[in-house]
């Protein structure tokens, strides 16, 4: 069965960076891109960016351009999301989600990684 | 302020039906981009409920249905059950922004 398993919770100070992993299994990894979506406490879903698992192409929300990097390791079917220059309002749960079709629906989601930014 | 607008909350009694609206514009839903819906329980990841406007993934009860017209889409839930109490989000693509967008979410309360 398709699974996306994310790395554990992180606590960071303002100005630091965080790197979250998302390990995919149960399907042919290069066949589906991975999107990252975050959810601040008590808030809605916010799309951050997307990476192709076949060639590494990326696309980012304007809000996160220049502050987020997405990479893949095809040998381990893992996608990484790095967010830099953290601020307190980056405190959120970060989800990876498989794109069934690029920029269409996300049919499988990771369990989420809580990132807390606090001095 | 979300690009797609949803009512913050809706409610209904068990057995009744409710509809959740998702209002967009000519750059997203009105431009012909598909709308998808997700169900999210507290403390868990979203789950795909409807994809490409009207389609249900395997395992989603047929009490859930989606529709789209003009610059809006709707999620209808019939025969409400207590376990339907959750947050619901619509999702589409915005051609002007060049990125996927979500609605602000709607909290469904089963009375």
Q: How would you describe this structure to a colleague?
A:
The complex is a heterodimer of chains A (119) and B (111). Chain A is an all-beta fold and 119 residues long. Helix content of chain A is 0%, strand content 50%. In chain A, strands 2, 4, 5, 6, 9, 10 and 11 form a seven-stranded mixed sheet that branches. Chain A has a four-stranded antiparallel sheet with strand order 1-3-8-7, with no helix packed on it. Chain A is globular and about 40 Å long. The relative contact order of chain A is 0.32. The model of chain A has no long low-confidence stretch (mean pLDDT 96). With 111 residues, chain B is mostly beta strands. Chain B has strands at residues 9-12, 18-23, 36-40, 47-50, 64-69, 72-77, 86-94, 99-102, 106-110. In chain B, the strands form two sheets. In chain B, strands 1, 3, 4, 7, 8 and 9 form a six-stranded mixed sheet that branches. Chain B starts with 8 loop residues before the first strand and ends with a strand. The mean pLDDT of chain B is 97. Classes of the chains: A mainly beta (119), B mainly beta (111).
State the gist of this model.
The complex is a heterodimer of chains A (119) and B (111). With 119 residues, chain A is mainly beta.
Secondary structure elements and pairings:
The complex is a heterodimer of chains A (119) and B (111).
Chain A (H helix, E strand, L loop, with lengths): L2 E4 L3 E3 L5 E8 L8 E6 L5 E7 L6 E3 L7 E6 L4 E6 L8 E8 L6 E4 L3 E5 L2
Parallel strand pairs in A: 2-11
Antiparallel strand pairs in A: 1-3, 3-8, 4-5, 4-9, 5-6, 7-8, 9-10, 9-11
Chain B lengths: L8 E4 L5 E6 L12 E5 L6 E4 L13 E6 L2 E6 L8 E9 L4 E4 L3 E5 L1
Parallel strand pairs in B: 1-9
Antiparallel strand pairs in B: 2-6, 3-4, 3-7, 5-6, 7-8, 7-9
Cα shape of chain A = globular
Count the strands of chain A?
11
Straight-line N-to-C gap of chain A: 40 Å
What coarse outline of chain B follows from CA principal-axis ratios? globular
Task: Estimate what percentage of residues of chain B fall within beta strands.
Answer: 35-45%
Which residues of chain B form runs of ≥5 with pLDDT under 50? none
Portion of residues within helices of chain B: under 10%
């Amino acid at each position: 069965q398709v699974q996306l398993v994310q790395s554990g919770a992180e606590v960071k100070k303002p100005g630091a960076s965080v790197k979250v992993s998302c390990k995919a299994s149960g399907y042919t990894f290069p066949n589906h891109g991975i999107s990252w979506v975050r959810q601040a406490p008590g808030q809605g879903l916010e799309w951050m960016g997307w990476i192709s698992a076949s060639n590494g192409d990326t696309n980012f929300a304007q809000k996160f351009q220049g502050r987020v990097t997405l990479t893949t390791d095809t040998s381990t079917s893992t996608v990484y999301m790095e967010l830099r220059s953290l601020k307190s309002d980056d405190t959120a749960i970060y989800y990876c989600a498989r794109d069934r079709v690029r920029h269409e629906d996300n049919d499988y989601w990771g369990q989420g990684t809580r990132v807390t930014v606090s001095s | 302020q979300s690009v797609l607008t949803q009512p913050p909350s809706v409610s209904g009694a068990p057995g009744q039906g409710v509809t959740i609206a998702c209002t967009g514009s000519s750059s997203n839903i009105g431009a012909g981009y598909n709308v998808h819906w997700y169900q999210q329980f507290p403390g868990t990841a979203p789950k795909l409920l409807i994809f490409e406007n009207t389609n249900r993934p395997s395992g989603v009860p047929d009490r859930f249905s989606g529709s789209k017209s003009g610059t809006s889409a709707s999620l209808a839930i019939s025969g409400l059950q207590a376990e339907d109490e959750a947050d619901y989000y619509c999702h589409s693509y915005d051609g002007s922004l060049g990125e996927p967008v979500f609605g602000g979410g709607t909290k469904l309360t089963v009375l």
